[in-house]
Every structure is written in structure tokens, then in C-alpha cells.
Amino acid sequence: QLQLVESGGGLVQPGGSLRLSCKGSGSTLDHYAIGWFRQAPGKQREGVSCINSSDGFTYYADSVKGRFTISRDNAKDTVTLQMNSLKPEDTAVYFCAAEAWYGSSCPVDGQDFGSWGQGTQVIVSS
Questions:
Q1: Cα–Cα distance measured from residue 41 to residue 30, given in angstroms and rounded to the nearest whole number
Q2: Cα(21)–Cα(4) distance, integer angstroms
Q3: Burial class (CB in 10 A: 0-12, 13-18, 19+), 122
Q4: C-beta of residue 120 within 8 angstroms of C-beta of residue 18
Q5: Which of 49, 74, 91, 123 has the most CB atoms less than 10 A away?
Q6: Which of 3, 18, 2 is nearest to 86 (CA)?
Q7: Cα gap 7→117, rounded to integer Å
Q8: What 3-state class would DSSP assign to 103?
């Protein structure tokens, strides 16, 4: 059974950078689309980014486009979210999620993902 573990969260000043990692175990990530989601206190979960396994398609929410970059290293069963130019509104718990996916694009909604990590906290504050 696939298990996911996020790491790399922490406290950073506005304008700073963090690199989140999502490590898979129990199964290779080769045929999984991997999504990053976040949830701030009192707010709904938000899809941030996604990368598929078939053609490298990537998706970014408008709120992070141009600042965040998602990438994957299938040899290491790891997906990385590089976050630059961080803003206080990026503060949230960040989760990675996986779903077996063989097509183009990415699953649309969090409900489409079957495996989730436990989350990592990101705080952007001066």
C-alpha cells in the first residue's frame, strides 16, 4: 500500500523560499499523479499543484503560478514543490496526495486522490 510522507515545511520570512518533498513508499510512484494541496485555518482545502506520470503535465493554481514549481524524480519516488517568493497567504498545512493515473492532465479534485500524506506546516511571517 502506498504511503506518502511530506517534509520541508517550516517558518520563513515573506519573500523567502521553501522546498517541500513528498516521498513515497510501499509502491513506486511511476504511475501516479501527485498533487499538492494546502489548508489554512478556517479555510477550505485548496489544490496548489499537480504533476502526472505519463507526459509530465503540470498544473498550478493561479495563486501560486510563477512562484511554485513541481517536479518529480521517479527513481527516488519523490515529488518536490519548490516555493519561491512566499507570501503570508501561503501559510497553511501542505499535503501531498497520489492517485494512479495513466492519462494526460491531472485529477481535478482532492476527492480524486486516494492516498494522502500527513501534511507539513508552512508559516510565512516576519
A1: 33
A2: 10
A3: buried
A4: no
A5: 49
A6: 18
A7: 10
A8: coil
Residue with cell 517558518: 11
pLDDT digits (tens, 9 = 90+) for 47-76: 999 999 988 899 999 999 999 999 999 999
Which neighbouring-strand residues pair with 14?
Answer: none
Question: Which of 57, 50, 55 has the alpha carbon at shortest distance from 34?
Answer: 50
Give CA separation, 62 vs 25, 35, 42, 52, 74, in Å. 30, 15, 21, 18, 26
Chain position carrying cell 497567504? 89
* Residues 59/2, Cβ–Cβ less than 8 Å: no
pLDDT for residue 103? 84
Burial profile 12-23: b = 16 or more Cβ within 10 angstroms, e = fewer: beeeeebebbbb
State the DSSP code for 23. E
**C-alpha–C-alpha distance, residues 15 and 23, integer Å:** 26
How many whole angstroms separate alpha carbon 29 and alpha carbon 46? 22
pLDDT confidence of residue 110: 85
